[in-house]
Design brief:
With 342 residues, this protein is an alpha/beta fold. The protein is built from 14 helices and eight strands.
């Protein structure tokens, strides 16, 4: 199948190569002619194929046969601008796929606006990061049935497939299993794909925060070796220093947990790898950005009236890591000083 890909960043370029390896015909576009050339070279070297490319959208669209299928792998903030530039060049029956991390409410609007012009819109939450080239991408898909069915060969090629994963106990009773077992799923109408991906990333925030906080507790289990000399009238003293005399090796502990533990996961694999490379994480800044999905997940929980305590706390932790609580901490200290600092 022929597919156009706009946006050749870390994920977009790897997705092009994976699709080329599966025998699909690719046309690529990016603001950088150098990146286009690099992608074409990779397709030739790693997939033994050819990919047409063009920086100008008009040339890019002209390389595609109708009805066209165009996948956008661009930052959420520029999707509307790219769509606005594309629409005058498209024809009735063409389909646009947004594989980035867009807000699902934007998908609902875009689908409605594009449908009025005869263009189908599909939103695809894409998980897999830079490892997706080899492992495959977990795809959460939203949009109209005809467009999703037409794109099935693309989704199947990008997804990881069943691989070596055992069948989930109980699923053998399902007569007509979905494509979920292959790592991709049509989740529902417009916006459904990015809604599921939004919550997926919100959960990821919570999981990452749990690992980080737990490992921090283990790292500081030697605080008792400092004794009582750090105690003061303003700081509660450590009552039993002898209970905190441990110097743990975090790299070894995370490696241990990877093997048979109930907290084993791919995120733990990545953590163990990072600690093996740099046990003190000395080259890592203690600042964690949030790209939007965590906020949107919390907002959805508020609108639905359901608690999301862990996910909300993990989002706030990211704000804290960037010093967004600095004035609040100053205010706390100012109040303490006013009443004597006790």
């Amino acid at each position: 199948m022929q597919l156009g890909m706009i946006g050749l960043g870390r994920m977009g370029q790897n997705m092009v190569v994976r699709l080329a390896k599966a025998g699909h015909q690719l046309v690529v576009s990016d603001r950088s002619a150098e990146v286009i050339q690099q992608t074409q070279q990779r397709v030739q070297k790693e997939a033994g194929g050819q990919a047409a490319g063009a920086s100008a959208l008009k040339d890019f669209v002209n390389h595609l046969s109708t009805p066209r299928a165009i996948w956008l792998m661009t930052p959420a903030g520029v999707v509307d601008r790219v769509i606005a530039d594309l629409v005058p060049l498209l024809s009735n029956g063409d389909v646009l796929i947004d594989g980035g991390n867009s807000y699902y409410i934007d998908d609902i609007r875009r689908a409605r606006e594009l449908a009025a012009k005869g263009i189908q819109y599909v939103d695809v939450g894409t998980s897999g990061g830079v490892w997706g080239l080899d492992r495959g991408y977990c795809l959460m898909i939203g949009g109209p049935d005809p467009a999703v069915k037409r794109l099935d060969p693309i989704f199947k090629a990008l997804a990881p497939g069943k691989g070596n994963a055992d069948k989930t106990p109980g699923r053998e009773k399902i007569k007509n299993p979905s494509t979920a077992e292959d790592g991709y799923l049509h989740c529902g109408p417009s916006g459904a794909g990015h809604f599921v991906k939004m919550v997926h990333n919100g959960i990821e925030y919570g999981l990452m925060a749990a690992y980080a906080e737990g490992l921090n507790v283990i790292k500081n289990a030697n605080v008792g070796k400092k004794g009582r000399e750090h105690a003061s009238a303003e700081v509660t003293p450590l009552r039993n220093p002898e209970h905190f005399q441990y110097d743990f090796n975090l790299a070894e502990i995370t490696e241990l947990w990877r093997r048979g533990s109930v907290v084993a996961s791919w995120l733990l694999d990545l953590t163990a790898s990072a600690l093996a490379e740099d046990p003190e994480l000395s080259n890592v800044k203690a600042e964690v950005p949030d790209s939007g999905e965590g906020r949107w997940t919390v907002l959805a929980a508020i609108e639905e009236g359901v608690p999301a305590t862990v996910l909300t706390a993990s989002l706030y932790q990211r704000f804290t890591s960037r010093g967004e609580d600095a004035f609040a901490c100053k205010t706390l200290q100012a109040m303490r000083r006013k009443f004597g600092g006790h």
